[in-house]
Amino acid sequence: MIRPHRSHPLWIAFILHRISGVVLALFLPIHFYVLSLALTDPTALDGFLRFSDLFVVKILETVLVLLLAVHLFGGLRLMAMELLPWTNWQKSLAASSIALGSAVACLFFLKVV
Amino acid sequence: MTDSNTETLNVSVWRGDASGGQFRDYQVPVQENQTVLDVVTWIQQKIDDTLSYRFACRVGMCGSCAMTVNGEPRWTCRTHVNRVTQSSSLEIGPLRNLPVIKDLTTDMDPFFDKWTKAGGTHRASRSRNDGMVPVDPASKERMIASEGIECINCAVCYAACDTVAANPQYLGPASLQRAWTLVNDEKHDDRSAVLRAVAAEGGCYNCHSHGSCTRYCPVELNPMKAVAGLKRTTVAKLWGK
Fold first, then answer.
1. I need a surface site. Which of A37, B124, B180, B230 has the fewest CB within 10 A?
2. Residues in chain B closer than 8 A to A78 (CB atoms)
């Protein structure tokens, strides 16, 4: 449950950034391991690629792209906030970064399905 | 206020001290234009005179009456009950992130110690014999400084900050905002020392930009903007700008 003092847009933007960052950190070693199969075990890689054609995996890939895109745009928002002259529409920027991330994920989903 | 109203408010007030405590329930008559501080005062005067709490001005100037109301930090003297009640119930506790002395009274020492640690003590650039530093009220620096000088040190931002909760070394929004006003104050003697203080361990780089400080500041200041200013300025200093 989100405690009362955390029920505001910038805190929600923070927790999305944190969760997406942790998930991506967990994903990257797996990603590099799968890539390494091309050199160490091509047969296993082919098996994994067939598995990745399943619809449910495409859904999971889309979620991953969503998290990546939200983390990317959220990170750009934070860097802009801390390094560029201040703007008063931080909540709008946070909402925009989530909207942009969602749009990227939607495009990805339409392309792969 | 009159006590003729029969409608009552269910109020849970945290009772205890540094070693622990629990919420205790009270029934308080509903009044018109009743503030949370009025409720606490009613309990203390009519039900239990051992209830400890802190207040002074009752008009939103001194910053001494801040408490946690229904899970959110608020200045209780200017918080009307009908704006925060949920089904005629109210939960009132001490401010978060500060040691409890007794009941609703917290020890403010850590808060003000960090204010000092962040370089918040004013150091005049001239003596009384040198005359005043001319300050243009419309200058960019002065306008930035003026944005933060109305802080009443209520510690609401400090209690709202999850970074303070996670890292007790973190200086917190109020002290960093004070530092930011001094960084932009032409009358302050060693502004580089303030920047060094806020860039040290526990300084502005710990801020995760949750924005709770700005969300809850009762006088509508923007500590998150001040912290961002400190980050920007200290990074620019790193690159010799």
1. B124
2. 209
Please say whether the structural domain B8-106 has been given the CATH code 3.10.20.30: yes
Query: What is the ipTM for the molecules in this complex?
Result: 0.85
Query: Which chain B residue has the Cα nearest residue A87?
Result: B225
Boundaries of every domain in chain B: 8-106, 109-238
B235 and A10: CB-CB below 8 Å? no
pLDDT tier, B80 (very low <50, low <70, confident <90, very high otherwise):
very high
Q: Residues B109-238: name the CATH superfamily.
A: Alpha-helical ferredoxin (1.10.1060.10)
Helices assigned H by DSSP within B106-155:
109-117, 140-148
Q: Tell the residue number behind the tokens 């039900």, with chain if given.
A: B47
pLDDT at res. A112: 78
Q: Which residues of A touch B229 (CB under 8 A)?
A: 86
Give this prediction's pTM. Answer: 0.91
Do A5 and B72 count as a contact with CB atoms less than 8 A apart?
A: yes
Taking an 8 Å cut-off on Cβ atoms, the answer to whether A6 and B211 are in contact is no
Q: How confident is the model at residue B4 (pLDDT cuts 50, 70, 90)?
A: low
Of the candidates A5, A84, A90, the beta carbon closest to that of B71 is on: A5
- Distance between CA atoms of B141 and B227, rounded to whole angstroms? 15
Name all domains of chain A by residue range, CATH numbers in brackets. Answer: 9-112 (1.20.1300.10)
Distances (CA, A) of B156 to B13, B49, B72: 18, 26, 9
| Amino acid B238: pLDDT | 84
Cβ-defined contact of A82 to B224 (cutoff 8 Å):
no
- The residue of chain A nearest to residue B160, with distances taken between CA atoms, is A5
Q: Is A92 on the interface with B (CB under 8 A)?
A: no
Residue B89 is inside which H or E element, if any?
strand B89-93
A14, A82, A87, A88: best mutation site toward chain B, by most B Cβ within 10 Å? Answer: A82
Q: Tens of pLDDT along B168-205?
A: 999 999 999 999 999 999 889 889 999 999 999 999 99
Helix locations, A41-89, DSSP H: 42-51, 55-83
